[in-house]
Structure formats: C-alpha cells, structure tokens
Amino acid sequence: MQxxxxxxxxxxxxxxxxxxxxxxxxxxxxxxxxxxxxxxxxGLGSGFLIDADxxxxxxxxxxxxxxxxxxxLPDGRDLEAELVGTDEVTxxxxxxxxGENLPAAPIGTSEGLIIGEWAVAIGNPFGNLFSNxxxxxxxxxxxAVGRHIVPSSEDRGFYLGMIQTDASINPGxxxxxxxxxxxxxxxxxxxxxTRSGGxxxxxxxxxxxxxxRVADDLVRHGEVRRxxxxxxxxxxxxxxxxxxxxxxxxxxxxxxxxxxxxxRPGARLLEARGSRLTAPLDFEDVLLDLRAGDEIALSLEGxxxxxxxxxxxxxxxxxxxxxxxxxxxxxxLTPQVRAxxxxxxxxxxxxxxxxxELEAQLGxxxxxxxxxxxxxxxxxxxxxxxxxxxxxxxxxxxxLRFVIERNGDYGVRDLMWRG
Length: 419
Known about the structure:
Helices cover about 15% and strands about 40% of the residues. By secondary structure, the chain is of the alpha+beta class. It folds into four domains: about 100 residues, Thrombin, subunit H (Beta Barrel), CATH 2.40.10; about 100 residues, Beta Barrel (Thrombin, subunit H), CATH 2.40.10.10; about 90 residues, PDZ domain (Pdz3 Domain), CATH 2.30.42; about 100 residues, Roll (Pdz3 Domain). Strand 22 and strand 23 form a beta hairpin.
C-alpha cells in the first residue's frame, strides 16, 4: 500500500524506563516489603518523526514518568531521546533525538475528514518481541469524528474531539500515526475501547492539527499556552427523547473577555466557532484549540447574530511572578485566577513554579495556595516572599506553620526552618 510506504519510514518504537513504588498485592507480601520498596519497569509505545532534525510526536502516557527514553528507528538504530515537553490534557508529548536528514512523515490535516474514508494505523504494538524493527500496519476506515471519551477509573482525563477508526490499534500502537489514503498523517493513535484488552474495532486518534499546535507550543515555550474566555457552562434539560440543544452559561468571571462581550449567566449557547453544542464537553473541545488573541463567535439563543469574544491568555500566565526562594515562584490570587483554578480562598499566594528538590524538601506543590504563615494572613505573593526573605536573614532553627489550600481543601504544614 503506497500510503503506508510513505509514512512507515518515519515511525519509531519508544522504550521507556521508570522507577515505580511497589505496592503489596497481599497482606503477607506487605509484611515483608519495606515501606518505600521500588522497582524498575519498562514501557512501550510508538511515535513518528515530524521533521528531519529528530523531533518526534508521541503520547504523553507513553513517556509519563520515564527516567530514560530509547527510540528505535525502522532501520534498527537505537537513539537516546530527550523529552522536550508533554501535555497531559491532550495526551501529546514531544521528544528529540540527535540526527540529520531523518525521514519525516508527510503531514496532512484532520479538517474535513469524511466518514467512511480509508485510514491506516501504523505503530509497533509488540516492540522488541519481534526480531525486526519495522512498524506494523492495519487498515480500516474513519468511523466518526469529534468523539469525546469519558475516562474509566484507570484513566487520567477526557479525550475530546477524537477521530474514531476501526483500523486495529493494539497496546504499543499508542503514539503512532493514523494515515489517510494519500499517505498523510491525520491523527496520533491514542487509545482503544476494549473489554478484552485487545482491539475491538474502536480505536481513537488525536486530530493531527491539534497535536501539532500543542507540539509547537511545547517546542517554542516549554508549555501549552491555552486561552481563556472567563465563562463556565453546564448541561441543559433534555427533551422527552433525551436530546439536548445547547449548553447554559453557569458563570461569567468579572472583567473577563466573556463579561466584556456582554454574556451573562443563564444564557444558552447553541454554537461555538460554527460547531453545534449539545453538552459541556463540546464547548471544552472548542476551547482546547483556542490561543490568546483568537476571536471566537458564540451563537446565543434569542440573539440576532453571533457574539464575538476575543480570547486572552490564562490569568495564571498573565499574573506577575514573585520569586520567594530560588526555584519557588508565586503569584497573587485575583478573582480571575481563583475562577480559573477553582480556588476557595479569597486571598493568598499561589505556587506557580517549584523545583522537584524544593518540593521534596518543603512538601509544597505547584497549584498550592499559601493562606497563612504562622499567625500572619497572606494577602499577596509579595507578603509570602517578604516572610521568606526575613527568614533568610535569621540564624538558628525556626518553627513555621503554613496553612495551605490544595484541591479545595485546607491543610497545615509544619516545617523546621534552618536559617
């Protein structure tokens, strides 16, 4: 098949090594295992080159937690890979290997896909179990587009706006390309719906247009720069047949782009960017592709014409950062930051950057909100930074008590500070 022949030379196997905590399977096993027992484990997935300089596109879940990543090219060469960036929300990751004139995959578009057109899934479902390193190919059709997958208890998040195909996708195919009949990549294989553990004709791929936008952000900025409208939506009541039309605006943040455009809570949104909305996940799917500065047309029930809203950068990315300690950056809580992150506290300093070493030492995490230090209420990032600066000038051991908001709950963290 010519389509497979065009893309297969760019498809790679990805082998990962990670250290995982060993959890006892039985009470007897738990008696003998030390509390911090750990073991090395390996993982397997696929990916594909998107340029001749060694940039590889794959899934976040293929490389999540990996300490080392080895890439095997179709010609059998093994190359150590560097993790450029990863995005759990879209399940996209970017790797880089050292090389020149590597075979990059021809890239197509996920726009305008036709239900029933041919699709080819390429990957390495069994990796090193076979003697050769060439990828395998399965064929089918595009079964559906714009599919939302609600996570099971073992999954970490939603898959939104996915391409559905009946081309067989098996464990290890994750991260490989989904290809059209012209031999152009239209998606990144990501998951299967299965009861048996194998392929049952329900495979899903991330649209390539979305994956490339995320990859570009990761390469350029080291993170995905998502946009913000400042409104939340909720489902509307279904008709007697179980059908819904539109979503209801449940909240509009003061001073947000949505508020400035005149959108109010209770309004019913029917379309966003020309896409019909029947559930909140439809709206979240549209937001994933927005970037700051983009204009989005929202159709409201009863409005004579669509309302145009200009998206902004997320409030947390626009807020001024204050360095409290080396490798610890804070921002001040504002109504916009609170709304974006769902924070309960009225005031405080949120941690937006912390090194792994400091995280292990202090027990803080990115996203934690420092509400009080000892008996002092923290009103801003500068308040918290001032406390840390004063501590640096003192000698001896000082006991500190931090009140922290994490995921909507409050906790107390006692630390012994050595000046």
